[in-house]
Amino acid sequence: MFRGTHRHNLDSKGRMNVPARFRDWLNAHCDGQIVVTIDVQSRPGEHCLVAYPLPTWEKVEAKVAELPSNNPKARQFQRMFVGQSEEMRLDSQARILLSPNLRRFAEIDKELVVVGQINKFEIWDAQCWDRYQENSLSDNEGFASLGDLVL
Question: Who has greater pLDDT, 19 or 147?
Answer without folding.
Answer: 19
